[in-house]
Structures are given as structure tokens and as C-alpha cells.
Task: inverse folding
């Protein structure tokens, strides 16, 4: 089971890193998932992720306080707006735009109602 969790942790970490450059793929949820899998499979990988200078503080903020830093909230908002704007510019069908608006509004509501550090 440890190998399965380690593999899922590495996969989650990869998706999180890809999410840094792809606005549609969230970063932090995948990092939180990677931290969970590493905690159950490899103390070394878990310690590395938690102590990482970029990823570690986000994970610890969430684990300790359920909080998201204001800069991360702003970055998420800008990314979400960019995705929606890109969909509009590229002429996505109206039903797709409507689905995006509903889902992205829910995501932004969740993000902005979390405590800040």
C-alpha cells in the first residue's frame, strides 16, 4: 500500500507542478493530496514537501488553519478571470460559458470565504 500511496503522491505532485503554468489545473489541492499520500507512504517525501520553500507554507497554512494567503487568493482570481476571458475571446459555446461561470463562481466563493493569514 505504501508504494501505491507514494505513486499517487508523485502523480499528485506532478499535477500540482503542471498547475502552476496551466490556469485550469489547480495547484494547491494537488499539493495537499500529495502531502496526504506522502504522509502515509514516505516520511522522507512528506518532510521534503512540507519543508519546501514554495509549497510548504501553503500546505502548512491549510493544515493548521484552513487558511489561504491573500496573494494566493488574488492569483487564483486572476487565473480564473483569464480562463473565462480566454473562453469568451475564443468563442466558446454559450452553454460552456455558463457552466464555467457557475463552477468558477463557486470556486472563487470557496477561496474567498477561507480565512487569510
Result:
Amino acid at each position: 500500500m505504501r508504494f501505491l500511496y507514494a505513486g499517487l503522491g508523485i502523480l499528485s505532485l506532478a499535477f500540482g507542478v503542471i498547475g502552476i503554468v496551466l490556469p485550469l489545473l489547480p495547484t494547491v489541492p494537488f499539493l495537499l493530496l500529495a502531502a496526504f499520500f506522502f504522509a502515509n507512504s514516505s516520511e522522507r517525501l512528506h518532510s521534503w514537501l512540507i519543508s519546501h520553500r514554495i509549497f510548504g507554507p501553503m500546505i502548512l497554512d491549510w493544515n493548521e488553519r484552513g487558511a489561504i494567503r491573500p496573494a494566493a487568493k488574488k492569483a487564483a482570481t486572476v487565473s480564473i478571470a483569464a480562463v473565462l476571458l480566454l473562453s469568451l475571446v475564443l468563442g466558446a459555446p454559450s452553454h460552456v460559458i455558463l457552466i464555467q461561470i457557475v463552477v468558477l463562481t463557486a470556486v472563487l466563493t470557496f477561496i474567498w470565504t477561507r480565512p487569510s493569514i
DSSP finds six helices and no strands in the chain. Residues 70-113 form one domain. Residues 10 and 74 are 27 Å apart (CA to CA).
